Amino acid sequence: MPVPKRLKKVFALAVENGWTVTETKKGYPGLIPPPGTVDHEGRPVTLVKFAKTPSDARSDANGLAQLRRLGLNVAHKGHTESKKQRHDRKR
Question: Which candidate, 84, 30, 33, places its Cα nearest to that of 52?
Answer without folding.
Answer: 30
